[in-house]
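User: Here's a protein and a ligand (iron/sulfur cluster). What would the complex look like?
Assistant: Let me lay out the input and then the predicted complex.
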Amino acid sequence: MSTPQQPFASYHLWSLVAPTAWQQRCHCQMRRGFIKARQHEPQVKALLAKATASQRIGLLAQKGVYEFHHHIHLLNQSDGVEKVAQLLKLSNSTDEVKQRVLQILKKYHDDPLLLGKRIILLTRGDEGFPKPILISHRHYCFRLYAVMDCVLIESDSTLHIIDFKTGKSDFDRRQALVYLLAARYLYPTHQAIASFYNLEVCKKSEIIRVTQSELDSIEFELAEIARKHQEDLHKYQENNSKFNKIFPANPGYHCRFCPFNSICEFSTLKALSPQQNEKKKL
Ligand code: SF4
């Protein structure tokens, strides 16, 4: 008999369960259902595997920063950007991806945020799932996943977690809170802070720091998210015909940006009926 999986939490799950203030109207629980309950179905799997241009740019930008610091001399070479572009095999990308990533590399080459910093972790961005942190408390137990882009030690010994961004999306403070909770377990002897840095517009966020009691509340909230999500998964496994009751749809204009709009029966972008198609031709 297979043992039931332990509940888990991550920033990604948090964002799928609860919207940020500016995403209230377009938040759809059914997306969580596709991503976290039906991810192994061939159609869903294929849609999840399709990286959007924004995702490609984010990943290549992160790899670019990694390569600059892995071959640190390239930051001082006039052809450093071209060299990193070759390492990233940028020529295989679409024009949009190529142009935007080249701009990011040029900006980073001109003003390298991490140069001279004591970096203790810098990821390429394609390492896959990190090892989970087991959080065990008298009232709850869950696995926490936190994929950190960069961790450095500031001159006053503070641990600084930096998350790299691209594009126009706003920074979501909750992501930093998850990192700070993870740091409590991974680097227990350090005071930790977190921030975001948008590589495309070279914009730093404010520094985010929390007290121990705030971390306790965040941990409790994530334990609750993990428990509720696990409960939803069990309900779905018991009766998968209840998918749309367990993960209710919230269709709207935002369906056009949803990766599942081609297979979601609630999508506002439904395929046209043969009659509608005929009318369109007239
Ligand atoms: S297509 Fe629309 S209703 Fe369906 S999962 Fe996506 S956002 Fe929700």
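Summary: Residues 164 and 197 are 5 Å apart (CA to CA).
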